[in-house]
Design goal:
By secondary structure, this protein is an alpha+beta fold. It folds into 5 domains: about 70 residues, Winged helix-like DNA-binding domain superfamily/Winged helix DNA-binding domain (Arc Repressor Mutant, subunit A, Orthogonal Bundle), CATH 1.10.10; about 60 residues, Nucleic acid-binding proteins (OB fold (Dihydrolipoamide Acetyltransferase, E2P), Beta Barrel), CATH 2.40.50.140; about 290 residues, no CATH class; about 55 residues, no CATH class; about 100 residues, OB fold (Dihydrolipoamide Acetyltransferase, E2P) (Beta Barrel), CATH 2.40.50.140. About 30% of the residues lie in helices and about 25% in strands. It has 18 helices and 33 strands. The strands form 10 sheets. It has a 5-stranded antiparallel sheet with strand order 5-4-3-6-7, with no helix packed on it. The chain has a 5-stranded antiparallel sheet with strand order 10-9-8-11-12. Strands 13-20-19-16-15 form a 5-stranded mixed sheet, covered by helices on one side. α4 packs antiparallel against α16 and α10 packs across α11. The chain starts with a helix and ends with a helix.
Length: about 775
């Protein structure tokens, strides 16, 4: 694998040289000194690189790299209105793709784009998708709709805006209105929808749990464990025997606790703290030793690698490991012997690491604490809880003091801390949301967060200097162009980003400190976060920009993250002396693919969790149509303004619904200005709104702005909603089948005119 990558890099490096001009195959063979016997391998490699979009072969059969030939490779990000953008893999600006230039691409596809219109001072560049390099979707989840001789599936994902055509023979018993999973049999083309066959019926749209199951299937999250994996899990002993604890340090007499949420059942980590004679802290972080039970190459291990991470929804958890392990023998349950990896750290009163040890241990947690109870002890001085946990009171006070020291030290070096409020969604036994509340991290959360961060840094640095293969958590520096754009937005609010062309994370933290408590805090924090790269796993060491940490890895959650489990496996072999050259070569060969897979599964899990949260918020509001709420303007766009309620639910006030005046979007001040009344709406304004629409399927919530100048209208009915004019239905051919076969020219022409008009209004 490494040799293959080296050959690819050598070819790419040569083609990216300024003096390079596209060459024929025979010319490349000559200049790259390819031996005659290796020419077939070389041709195969070029073909593979062409499929990946790394190189391109022209019509005259000359090879070059796309970026030198005016082509851009990236991911297609579709918009529900039919157009989209290509997000380049390099540092280029996004490319706008009109609806008539998508050419069969679907949201998430990796594509190659040709620029058709260069960027101007006011508009970004436009392009056309000329090649689809890889497809993002093999299956689609949606709602089945039927006609006389065929069916359609309307995708749940709003960005998959074209229905999937289902031939009659492939309907497989699905009924109108059911949620189904479709396997795509034909990809979409410029004028034809995708085709597919129904492979699974999830149930009726309104059935309990079907909505979340649709999300699970849409993101390809393995739901049920194969029988062979469950059988292997059931064979694992649920008790720690004498044979298990041989050669381990016995810490069962050490006072330690777990601190987690009330609902948590997979307890990865326990903490202990002591004050040494020299006044320093001795912090212990004790992590479940999952690798003792999940052996490399076992069915448990293969399934864990496939899943990559546990996924958390309001009504369920989809664990990475079967419950016999995740909630059983691997979970650090209070009062039970457990196998662990312990990291003991000596830290002085300034937060400086003086010494550390890493070793295998056997532990016994004293108490299963919750964030709520620890918060009440430390911040509310709760007498009942203080009495109940009097043995641990001093430990909690020391933990708080050390956590604040570590946080201050981390902030001094420039670590970036976003302070977003999270939503806690409470559902009933049928998965229906009954309450949504704002959830903010408290001192108890901070204690665990700081201790885990410190432990992860120590482990990462320790094994980096040993020079062994490892899994790092890296966060690359942000793109300078995105930082420049962010600085321009900050200027609207009167802020300035220092050194944005070669930015240090400290500069971003200074901005976040300045905006704390201001009306614009959320929008600036959100824009800042979106301007950064995404953290990912890598077998190659790089620093973590967001944490301003030179060394960082994920070590502390092996029950629910595969990278942590992989790290434990390497650590155990190194500590026992079994990490010889053969094993080092083994890890070096498998880690690139594993880290890539883990990063992809993490993103899928995050997207699924976010999608589910948005859906449940819309479902919760669906029961409150017509109700009025107080909220704050959280963002301003060219099509309206977003209003956030106190419980974190956010909805859109469409510009078209603000009918007391004609409002103009002012990009310079990020505000909406009434032409006649001169009324201005800005981020942070408090407004009163009425809920007029909530659609869980599209995750969309719409508000109507209420103020003194907007009373009820003559055309409104008693509920306050405008009554639509009744239109006499007329019998027509289903337009979707006409679009599918490319016959609906009239509809297509009108649609193109609308898109052209729409495109003029879009500001990018």
């Amino acid at each position: 694998m490494n040799t293959l990558e080296e050959r690819k890099n050598r070819i790419l490096s040569y083609m990216r040289e300024k003096a390079y001009k596209p060459l024929l195959l025979s010319e490349l063979v000559t200049v790259l000194d390819v031996p005659k016997e290796d020419i077939p391998v070389f041709i195969s490699l070029l073909n593979h690189m062409e499929e990946e979009g790394l190189v391109i072969k022209t019509r005259k059969e000359r090879y070059g790299v796309p970026e030198r030939m005016g082509l851009i490779v990236g991911r297609f990000q579709a918009h529900e209105r039919g157009f989209g953008f290509v997000i380049p893999e390099t540092g280029n600006e996004d490319v706008f793709i009109p609806a008539n230039a998508i050419n069969g691409a679907m949201h998430g596809d990796r594509v190659m784009t040709r620029s058709t219109k260069p960027a101007t001072a006011t508009r970004g560049q436009e392009g056309e998708i000329i090649r689809i390099l890889s497809r993002a979707h093999k299956t689609v989840v949606g709602t089945f709709d039927s006609s006389d001789n065929f069916g359609f599936v309307i995708p749940d994902h709003a960005r998959l805006f074209r229905d999937v055509f289902i031939p009659r023979d492939y309907i497989n018993g699905a009924k109108k209105g059911q949620k189904v999973v479709v396997e795509l049999t034909k990809w979409p083309e410029a004028n034809r929808n995708a085709e597919g066959r129904i492979i699974e019926i999830l149930g009726d749209s309104g059935d309990a749990g079907v909505d979340i199951m649709s999300i699970i299937r849409a993101y390809g999250i393995p739901y049920e464990f194969p029988e062979v994996v469950l059988k292997e899990a059931k064979k694992v002993s649920q008790t720690v025997g004498e044979e298990d604890i041989k050669n381990r340090r016995d810490l069962r007499d050490l006072r330690m606790v777990t601190i987690d949420g009330e609902d948590a059942k997979d307890l990865d980590d326990a903490v202990s703290i002591e004050i040494l004679e020299n006044g320093n802290y001795r912090l212990g972080v004790h992590i479940a030793d999952v690798t003792h039970y999940v052996k490399e190459g076992s069915m448990l291990d293969r399934e864990a690698l496939l899943r990559g991470t546990s996924v958390y929804f309001p009504d369920r958890v989809i664990p990475m490991l079967p419950r016999e392990l995740s909630n059983g023998i691997c979970s650090l349950n209070a009062g039970e012997d457990r196998l662990a990896f312990s990291v003991m750290m000596e830290i002085d009163r300034n937060g400086k690491m003086k010494d550390h040890e890493i070793f295998e241990s056997v532990i016994r947690v004293r108490e299963r604490m919750t964030y709520t109870d620890v918060y009440k002890i430390l911040e509310e001085d709760d007498p009942e809880l203080k009495e109940r946990y009097r043995e641990h009171l001093d430990d909690f006070y020391h933990m708080r003091d050390l956590a604040l020291i570590l946080k201050r030290k981390r902030q001094e070096r420039g670590s970036v801390d976003f302070d977003f409020s999270e939503a806690k969604i409470i559902v009933d036994e049928n998965g229906k949301p009954v309450e949504i509340v704002k959830y903010k991290l408290n001192i108890a959360n901070r204690i665990i967060e700081e201790f885990m961060l410190q432990c992860n840094e120590v482990v990462s640095e320790h094994f980096y200097w040993l020079g062994v293969p490892f899994v790092y958590r890296i966060h690359e520096n942000p793109d300078p162009d995105k930082m420049e754009s962010l600085n321009q937005v900050l200027g609207i609010f009167g802020y300035h980003l220092k050194g944005y062309q070669d930015i240090h994370p400290r500069a971003l933290q200074e901005i976040l400190d300045q905006i704390k408590g201001t009306p614009e805090e959320k929008v600036i924090s959100t824009l800042t976060l979106r301007s950064l790269q995404k953290a990912r796993y890598s077998d190659v060491h790089k620093w973590h920009f967001g944490l301003a940490a030179e060394y960082y890895s994920h070590f502390t959650a092996p029950i629910r993250r595969y990278p942590d489990l992989m790290i434990h496996r390497i650590m155990k072999e190194q500590l026992s002396g079994r990490l010889d050259e053969k094993r080092i070569d083994h890890y070096r060969s498998i880690l690139p693919e594993i880290t890539k897979s883990n990063s992809e599964r993490e993103r899928a899990a995050q997207d699924a969790e976010r999608d589910c949260e948005d859906m449940k918020k819309a479902e919760y509001m669906q029961e409150r149509l017509g109700e009025e709420f107080d909220g704050m303007v959280s963002n301003i766009t060219a099509f309206g303004m977003f209003v956030e309620l106190d419980n974190t639910i956010e909805g859109l006030v469409k510009l078209s619904s603000m009918d007391d005046d004609y409002y103009v979007y002012d990009a310079q001040s990020l505000s909406l200005l009434g032409e006649r009344t001169r009324k201005r709406f800005r981020i942070g304004d408090r407004v009163r709104v009425q809920l007029v629409k909530a659609t869980p399927e599209t995750r969309q919530i719409d508000f109507l702005l209420l103020d003194s100048e907007q009373g009820s209208k003559p055309e409104e009915n008693e509920t306050g909603f405008k009554e639509a004019k009744r239109v006499k239905p007329k019998k027509t051919v289903d337009p979707r089948i006409l679009v599918h076969i490319g016959a609906n020219k009239k509809i297509k022409g009108k649609k193109q005119k609308r898109e052209k008009h729409q495109k003029k209004k879009i500001k990018r």
